Amino acid sequence: MTKITQETIRHDDITYQSIAKAFGLELVEHQEALERMKKLSKPHPSQPDFSYDVPSPALEAKKRMIRLPIDESRDAKDQVLFVDESLWVPIAVVNGNIHILPGVPRLFEKLLEGLKPGLVPRLTDPEGKGVYRILISTPMAESAVATYLTELAGKVESKGVKVGSYPRWGKKRNSVTLVGRDKAYMEELVPQIEENVQGTRVEREDEMDQSDDPDEG
């Protein structure tokens, strides 16, 4: 059985406090997490006299790790997940879509593996089409193509296609992207976009940098 010590999770981490403040939530001491901590967390050798029944700075540090941002308007069981029976560490879920996975890489990996069965179905494409991204490199300034791209975005939105524009700091070429599931429809758009932004389809956004200026970068 894996033992997670106090040092595995930083007692001075402010993630819970920061997320709670951002969403206007209170930090609540989670009793099940505390009970699991008592059962599964082994005291550090430097604290042989540590006790959960005696107030101490060490106990306060431990309890800070199970004071979680809780939304009283949501179902409690959906806000605190225990995904591995060998771990006392909870995954706090805020706003239904923010998952806080504390700990060092080894612990993070175990939590992520435990979360996978519930996470993967949410990421699965029900139509099996996948998500595609098309990248077009343009020498034009973002402001010069903004009007056209705004109009294009309005036209393709009903097809589930997103249009993006990304300036590249210090470079002569910027990037225009199409992201969506309808690959055939997106492919049809490429020639007209290339024409309107004076661009070229590329696989990487830096693909044409050297041809623009061999001495740059």
Automatic annotation (TrEMBL):
It comes from the Eukaryota. It holds the Pfam family FLAD1_M. GO terms for molecular function: FAD diphosphatase activity. Residues 136-203 form the FAD synthase middle domain. Residues 195-217 are annotated as: Disordered. Residues 205-217 have a biased composition (Acidic residues). InterPro entries: FLAD1_M, MoaB/Mog-like_dom_sf. GO terms for biological process: flavin-containing compound metabolic process. SUPFAM superfamilies: Molybdenum cofactor biosynthesis proteins. This is FAD synthase middle domain-containing protein. It comes from Imshaugia aleurites. The lineage of its organism: Eukaryota, Fungi, Dikarya, Ascomycota, Pezizomycotina.
